[in-house]
Amino acid sequence: MRLRLREPLLYRWLRLKRALDKRPRPASELGTPAIQRILAISCTALGDTLLSTPALAALRQTYPQAHITLLVHPSLLALFTGLDSVDELVPYDGKWRGFGRVARQLKDFDLAVILHGNEPQATPLAYLSGARHIFKLPNNNRWNFLLSNREPVVSWDDLGHGIDQRLAVASLAGAREPFSRRMTVPRHVEGEQALAAALLVRGWQGAPMVAFQPGASTMSRRWPRGRFVAAAAELVARHPDLRFVVTGSPAEQALCREIAAGIEQAVPVAGGSRAWASAGDLPLIALPDLLRRSAVLVSGDTGPMHLAVTVETPVVALFAVSDPARSGPGYDLERHIVIRKWRTCDPCLSKNCPYAEPVCMDNISVDEVVAAVNSVLGQKSA
Fold it and tell me: Domain 189-381: what homologous superfamily?
């Protein structure tokens, strides 16, 4: 009952509070030293936060004097610690639990930008931070009345790639061009050391590696697990020295180990290991260096795919349900290969996909993926 009442009560209270709020909000402040404290909200998944980093860099470029605080998902706190464009990270998972604590912590901001966050929490938090100027795109939800950019009303379909959507928010907030679309992630010595130790144990220091990312935030974005094993077997026939690292979150450890075991059984290597399930074995701060060390990553629409793009590792990106024009590799397109198939279900249930191995992703053949990986490996050896 309390959860059902929380949102409507918050909505009515903020409606009244905003109607009584007569603080001046001159647009002439934007882009000037009058903006001293900036709140940036990007507290969802890994890929979403990486897509926000160009906008954060644009804000830092325009407001070098400002203190920039970033709301970030707690699971990503260590990875983004040391990000050059922000001064402070505040952990928040975007849910009601913790909403009150974070609302009390955020005080006296001049400007808030919602780069990517869940509603009904993100926009109310931005307003409760004290920010006079609040910007968000898309702006077509019921909390629009709290925004500085209420008009024109813009939906996701109007915004293009996720990087460009976030840069558009930064532009509304006074950020000045030229903008770089390149994503960034801090380097962590501890992560690099953890990876070096893991590779040493396996004797993989000089071995060519292909990374597989079988998991995804939704079932509808996953390539069937057996396809990864079959692809590895075909690749080894042409590249017998290849090793395969199967990446994923701790929650995906069982899936990754199943695939790694399948590869070991299909294409064993004498006196060593062919595949390693790094999920659960390495901290997240080691993932950038693991992908940097890999020759190519095969992945659906995932955070690790965007992380590979960030560290300039080629990706073979597998798409069906989601649109690569919106969430695929955002730049260096000549380096990456996108394989896209059609949606097989009408309507597509996306996050509620009933299939353990989605039919649409099953349309991506092993031969297509192997050809793409061989193309990348051929370019690297040329």
Answer: Glycogen Phosphorylase B; (3.40.50.2000)
267, 268, 289, 310, 320 from 294: Cα distances, Å: 19, 20, 9, 13, 25
Any idea which residue has 């909200």 for tokens? 41
Q: Residue 238 — φ and ψ, nearest 5°?
A: -100, -30
pLDDT given at position 381: 64
Q: Where are the chain's structural domains?
A: 18-172, 189-381
Secondary structure element (H or E) that encloses residue 168, with its range: helix 162-172
pLDDT, averaged across the chain: 95
b/e per residue, 306-333, with b = 16+ CB within 10 A?
Answer: bbbbbbebbbbbbbbbbebebbbbbeee
Q: At what angle do helices 303-310 and 46-62 cross, to 10 degrees?
A: 40
* Strand duo 275-277 + 243-246: pairing: parallel
Sheet strand arrangement including 243-246 = 275-277, 243-246, 209-213, 296-299, 315-319, 337-340
Measured CA distances, 152 to 30, 158, 171 (Å):
19, 11, 15
Does the global pTM surpass 0.90? yes
Domain 18-172 -> CATH class: alpha beta
> 3-state DSSP call for residue 41?
strand
Mean pLDDT (whole number) for 356-369: 90
Residue 69 DSSP symbol: E
